[in-house]
Specification:
A hairpin with a 4-residue loop joins strand 2 and strand 3. Strands 4-10-9-8-7-5-6 form a seven-stranded mixed β-sheet, sandwiched between helices. The chain has a four-stranded mixed β-sheet with strand order 1-2-3-13. It has a four-stranded antiparallel β-sheet with strand order 11-12-15-14. The chain has two domains: 148 residues, Alpha-Beta Complex (Aspartate Aminotransferase, domain 1); 263 residues, Type I PLP-dependent aspartate aminotransferase-like (Major domain) (Aspartate Aminotransferase, domain 2). It is an alpha/beta fold and 448 residues long. The protein is built from 15 helices and 15 strands. The radius of gyration is 22 Å and the shape is globular. Helix 13 packs across helix 14.
Length: 448
């Protein structure tokens, strides 16, 4: 193409010839983004937007981290690609770093190009290792968009794939949600009844290979379990010879104030899956890490999995750089510290806005839940509204914030506040001021 496209042409071609994900296509006019710096991205008109959700909760180091960019450049010059059957310096170096930061006991790795693919690998490994077939997931969950991962997804993004999406062997248990318990219990009097119910499912289903859980549920609400939950789940899995898979695609790499969310409870899963922040999203990389016990099984059993881009050198190099940057800037501890500050500010906002029903989070990973009627616990919108293309109240609030230069993820009834780990207090205050003003839209719709 000899002439540079105008910004309008870029938007029109994008909307006409490419799919906008998880939405109706009519009326889609995506913002033309041309640059980014620190915690801000910039559109074609030069307007700057504070990124309050790290895009898809993945830009942990913000935009234009020079160490990560340099690592990609250098790897491209030295070896852009080699098949996964070969050893490389970058593969060995990343593996050694992973042994330092992952929960102790996870010692063998399969590299993919997304969290979705890493979850697919986890399913296959669990089934090959145990000889059993069934996977238990939870209703408020998201594990990816391929056939296996979408079948294990509890939220309505699964619906379009059914009945094919409901592959045999995937069972759903209640999520841990102390704000709105799906089995109508109250913590702590419940004794962690949702975990007891999961054990009931395991006993009555039989043939259960693994339980897959987001340690802190991500898109579906930043649901934080009570301190007793994961130790109890670990005990149940061990008792029944069921593997525990932790989906840390969103919660890993300092997002919750620890290297990995499971570290909060001192529980080591049998398989840990992660992606997103591992390269601060500059290159697509996913990781499926398994225990030594699982690894040793495949010494004498065929490992029936693989793909062309597994352990792709260009995806591994930025992971090394990202991990070193997390260490250099002490971002894990900084996430915990800044998270306390953000949490306090959000809880102060909740006293001011009648639409805010709950504020919850860990590290720089927070949800603000809105209700139409707090007394009756009535939501403004439902999953059916979302799938039906109805503009939700939280989306209206987020749209107003975009007009005022702040980008924030909204999902059905809540916001996911997960800024880059490098964000400053001043930037947090600036974004929260815009949020404060935009919440008036929801406040005006409150009943009761």
């Amino acid at each position: 193409m000899s002439e540079k496209l105008t910004s309008q042409e870029v938007v029109e071609i994008t909307a006409k010839h490419t799919y906008g994900t998880w939405r109706k296509q009519k009326g889609w006019t995506p913002l033309h983004v041309v640059d980014g710096e620190g915690c801000f991205f910039i559109d074609a008109n030069g307007k700057r937007y504070l990124d309050f959700s790290s895009q898809l909760m993945c830009l942990h180091l913000g935009y234009k981290n020079q160490a990560v960019i340099k690592a990609i450049e250098e790897q491209a010059r030295s070896m852009a690609y080699i098949a996964p059957g070969f050893a490389t310096d970058v593969r060995a170096e990343l593996s050694m770093l992973l042994l330092e930061v992952l929960p102790k006991g996870l010692e063998k790795f399969f590299f993919t190009t997304s969290g979705t693919e890493a979850n697919e690998a986890a399913f296959k490994i669990a089934r090959m290792y145990t000889g059993k077939t069934k996977i238990i997931a939870r209703y408020r969950s998201y594990h990816g968009s391929t056939m296996g991962s979408i079948a294990a997804t509890g939220d309505p993004r699964r619906w379009a794939m059914e009945p094919a999406g409901k592959i045999p062997g995937v069972i759903f248990s209640p999520e841990v949600n102390c704000f709105d318990c799906p089995i109508k219990h109250t913590y702590p009097e419940c004794g962690i009844a949702c975990a007891d119910y999961l054990e009931h499912i395991i006993i009555n289903e039989g043939d259960v290979a693994a339980v897959m859980m987001e340690p802190v549920v991500g898109t579906n609400g930043i649901l934080i379990p009570p301190k007793e939950y994961f130790p109890k789940i670990r005990e149940i899995c061990d008792k029944h010879n069921v593997l525990l898979i932790a989906d840390e695609v969103m919660t890993g790499w300092g997002r919750t104030g620890k290297w990995f969310a499971m570290d909060h409870w001192g529980v080591v899963p049998d398989i840990l899956v992660t992606a997103k922040g591992i390269t601060t999203a500059y290159m697509p990389l996913g990781l499926c890490a398994t225990s030594k016990t699982i690894a040793e099984y495949f010494d004498d059993h065929f490992f029936s999995h693989g793909h062309t881009y597994e352990a792709h050198p260009l995806t591994l190099a930025p992971a090394i750089a990202s991990i070193n940057e997390f260490k250099r800037m002490d971002l894990i501890n900084r996430s915990a510290e800044m998270g306390e500050y953000l949490g306090q500010k959000l809880k102060t906002l909740s006293t001011k806005h009648p639409s805010i029903a709950d504020v919850r989070g860990l590290g720089l990973f927070w949800a603000v839940e809105l209700l139409k009627n707090k007394k009756n616990k009535t939501y403004f919108n439902t999953y059916k509204d979302k799938v039906g293309g109805v503009q939700t109240v939280v989306e209206k609030v987020a749209a107003q914030m975009m007009k005022n230069g702040v980008y924030l993820q909204a999902w059905v009834s809540h916001f996911v506040i997960a800024p880059p780990l490098i964000i400053t207090r001043e930037e947090l205050d600036s974004g929260l001021a815009v949020f404060d003003e935009a919440l008036k839209i929801a406040d005006e719709l409150v009943e009761g």
